[in-house]
Amino acid sequence: MKTLTAVALFSGVVAFAQTPATPKPASAKTAIPNNAGPAATLSYKSLTFPPLRQPKIPTPDTFTLPNGMKVYLLEDHELPTISGFAMIRTGNLFDPPDKRGLADLTGSVLRAGGTKAKTGDQIDEQLENLAASVESNIGENRGTLSFSALKENTDEVLAVFKDFITNADFRQDKLDLAKTQATSGIARRNDDPGGIANREFQGILYGRNSPYGWSIEYEHINNIQRDDLVNFYKRYYFPANIRLSVYGDFDSAAMRAKLERLFADWTYKQPAVPDFPKFQGKPDAGVFVAEKSDVTQTFFEIGHTGGLLSDKDYPALQVTADILGSGFTSRLMRKVRTELGYAYSIGAGWGAGYLHPGLFEISGSTKSASTAETVEVIQQEVQKLRTGEVTSQELQTAKDTVLNGFVFLFDTPAKTLNRVVTYDYYGYPADFVFQYRKAIDSVTRADVLRVAKEYFKPENLTIVAVGNPKAFGRSLDTLKLPVKPIDLTIPEPKKAAAAADASTMARGKELLALAQKALGGLDKLAAVKDMSRTADASIDAGGQQMKAKQISRSVAPSTFRQDQELPFGKISVYSDGKTGWMSTPQGQQALPPPVLKQVQGEMFRELPTLLQSKNVNAAGPGLLDITDGQGNSTRLAIDEKTGVILTQTYQSVAMGGPPQTIVETYSDWRDVNGIRFPFKVVIEQGGKKFADVTVTDLKINSGIDAADLAKRP
């Protein structure tokens, strides 16, 4: 009977379709028909199997410790291991609006930052020697702290686990690292077009000013300090707010006694945690286009809000969405991929959450030229589901997809216990999953048509398309929905500026006048029409020094060109202040927005121009803040006795990485046509030395023609 077993495995019903090891009599349903000759071929269509056995969920031993912590114990003696997790009622839905990302940082630095007794690195080494682990994270509406250990090391690992849950230390160096990783993620968030589509789709439907849909920006991460993590931890990590689950090779009575002793001294209390914020999203029908010119496909997300897992029609909606877009037999796959060849992959699902609505979501990608046609076909397929019953085969395939995978919800003790605790955490009945399975089994063709008519709203579809509009074969205006652009600009962090009042502004003007005099006087600075500067630079390139030669030329008020000779070739950048181009060994292109922004900042920070500014404010003794009202700002540190500029500090423009603080330190001041300039500049980036720049030649008012600067290499 090995042939039958192989067929059963192929059908995906591993645990329930296996045949007995002993031969069956010829009268069994799975036998070869009596009238078959010796050469007869067994067809899979002639095979029948008994009904799938119903999985049984073991009941964990549940109790509450004296300090208020609820505990679930589930014995499993298959392997000599013990694992567990604490589920904490918290989440990023509790992030303050100006400190978005706080919960996520708290969850990661809780583990990396170690405890008051040991650093995170010391604990890493300890756990590695024990073949154990302790991990932490905080998601949207719950936090977890988990552990895993060999049975023989349980006491030691539980002690570490308890130390994290009660005495996490949030060391500053680990917070700094986590913030750097977070800002790096922000800088790269527009690299993946599919990720852009998903992010913008959620932001539109959940609301960009809602914790369900807002984006985390540089300024939010920069606002977060160590005390914020400590206070977040203290507010939510207390016994009565935690469900602790332990499963593995132990005796429940002995484990209960162990946990009672372990947490006997932790009696910390806090007020009950409030409800999570309510979802208040509204439909926003239309086509939202995010321009990304470096792709040849359009990545799309189409849909509207879904519902809750507890909705009475959720099972029918899941079956309906599967018929629409789950697997190779779905309607969207057959029409969009197989018949029309518009897309390689496309899918649909009816999303549902425990506490707030999920999203009805159709996602995929298509070649740029077929963008409008693909969206149009999807709209038509959604409408077809609302106008006629699906076939019996479609219904059965969708139901079998769900039912045949049901067993994998319970194939490990960890999954089983997690599901039990999760239902309790969200207030769902313990047998919810069985109610759901029964409801799936009872879905009819009439149910599919009914829920499609009631819940699928073609008129409310939000369509997000990420691609190159210039390559679209048809304009998306032909879809007869409003077309709106999506701005993918990543906002730069707000610069910290000293509060301005009449006295600080007056003092700022005094500092400005002092610096003007030290450089040669306002009249001479205002008389500068063009500049040419040649410099040698030594740049830190990943720990190795890279030599470069720079020639920078500018013509007032806004024309700028810089030519750099580098080991790998020549790079030239030109701008008239509004547009420009750049030339590299790979070719020429229009200035990308971040590079244009950087050039505009360079022109703003040129000392002769900068010291003619009107928007000035004293930020402290010898500190002068200067802004131009167009997003550029910088801070000068000035010697109050001589007026000499010591340093200039500003934020870099994000280009493939997060903005960083740049500090330019000036020395070797020399006179050029009556104006003093620094011929030595040391540049620090993110607190580390980045480059040494030595000026070898500097000319003022040499008659540079702005038209010459625009000539391409």
Overall domain count = 3
Total helical segments: 21
How many strands in all? 27
Rg is 33 Å
Largest sheet: spatial strand order:
20-19-18-17-16-15-27-26-25-24-23-22-21
Find the structural class using helix and strand composition: alpha+beta
Distance between the termini: 76 Å
| Helix content percent band | 25-40%
CATH A-level architecture of the largest domain: Clam
Q: How does the major sheet shape up? A: 13 strands, antiparallel
Describe the protein's architecture and organization:
With 713 residues, the protein is of the alpha+beta class. The protein folds into three domains: 61-262, 2-Layer Sandwich (Cytochrome Bc1 Complex, Chain A, domain 1), CATH 3.30.830.10; 286-485, Cytochrome Bc1 Complex, Chain A, domain 1, CATH 3.30.830; 502-709, outer membrane lipoprotein receptor (LolB), chain A, CATH 2.50.20.10. The strands form four sheets. A 13-stranded antiparallel beta sheet has the order 20-19-18-17-16-15-27-26-25-24-23-22-21, with helices on one face. Strands 1-2-6-3-5-4 form a six-stranded mixed beta sheet, with helices on both faces. Strand 4 (133-138) and strand 5 (143-150) form a beta hairpin. The longest helix has 18 residues, at 502-519. It is globular and about 95 Å long. Residues 1-38 have low confidence and may be disordered.
